[in-house]
Amino acid sequence: MIDLIQRIMNKSYFHMEASPWQINFQDPATPIAARIIEIHNHVFFFLVIILIFVSYLLFRVLASFWYSLPDTINSSTSEEKINQLYLLTKLKFTHNTAIEIIWTCIPSFILIVIAIPSFGLLYAMDDIIDPQITVKAIGHQWYWSYEYSDYDNINDSNTINFDSYMVPETELKLGQLRLLEVDNAMVLPMGVYVRLNVTGADVLHSWTVPSLGVKIDAVPHRINSGVIFLQRLGVFYGQCSEICGVNHGFMPIVVKSVSIDKYIDWVTNKLENN
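Request: output the structure for the sequence above.
Response:
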């Protein structure tokens, strides 16, 4: 109990800034993640309007034909029943050309309004800008490996590659997150275009970090690519989002966004120690 209170009092425990009910998106750290949240809010507006409109129509149908109509017909003579049914057929709720045009054009217009910004987002997600750094992520059962191939020409015997394992619960430090911490995190500089190549060594995996707006499938014998452009410093967490076996939930991803100077120091230290 004391340990729990200490964790709550520690500010680093809340560095993910999640909402109390964890129903909202994580704070975006890349332009793609910000666009994803924007398009979600854009589409959700139309969903709310459609939900209200359809619910209103269903309520009116139930109120008009389920409650009002039987009472009226039962209290009428046979001739009055026939007249009322005849009047109902004159309302033309079916085979009405005007209504069919309206309920075809309005949804089509809504789809166009939704499609235009979504097409731009899809293009931005697939666009591979000339990167300054290339990192390769390899999914294993059940851990990740990372390779920084841009520095092979400096010294062929000193390449940057390391494995990233989940920190066991018994080894967690105060303020660290259960099932999300790793022993070796991916370190990337802020304000630099990074190309991420992802592949699998055995089965299907998926390299996913919500704050970065990145979800790239790790397929054996195939390389899928994406671009990361970090806009702020911080530590961002993710997990494999492809069911890859019994320990699927125990291969987290940690990305540390640092300044250019700190990134250079990190690369230099890695090259010297390898």
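The radius of gyration is 28 Å.
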